[in-house]
Amino acid sequence: MGIFFRGAVSKYRVAAAYSKKNFGTLSEAFTVDDRSLLSVSFGYKLNEFVEAVLNRTTQFELDSATVRYESLNTISFMLNFTRKF
Q1: pLDDT (tens digit per residue) in 27-84
Q2: What CA–CA distance (Å, rounded) separates 40 from 45?
Q3: DSSP labels for 11-59?
């Protein structure tokens, strides 16, 4: 299952995504755990061709020492180059 949102106003853009795999009931689908992936990004259009994007992703990784899933948060910065043809 996946839920995605994307919106833009003027030079700003926001996008969010949530996905979950291997769940049994609908209520279980909305419980964040080791089968979930969350992502949020914020973009700002610098000019006609370039957009700066800050992205935050949360996923889960098995810690072999404790044998428990720990959340792994990643923050990245990107420059997107676009050109309409």
Answers
A1: 888 888 888 999 999 999 999 899 999 999 999 888 888 888 888 999 999 999 988 7
A2: 17
A3: TEEEEEEEEE-S-SSHHHHTS-STTEEEEEEEEEE-SSSEEEEEEEEEE
How far apart (Å, rounded) are the C-alpha atoms in residues 63 and 15?
Answer: 29
Quick one: tokens of 67? Answer: 């044998």
Instruction: Please state, in angstroms and rounded to a whole number, the distance separating the CA atoms of residues 33 and 16.
Output: 17
Cβ-proximal residues to 7 (8 Å cutoff; 6+ apart), any chain: 13, 14, 15
CA 4 to chain centre: 9
Length reported for the chain = 85
- CA-to-CA distance for 48 and 26, rounded, in angstroms? 43
- Rounded Cα gap, residues 12 and 53, in angstroms: 10
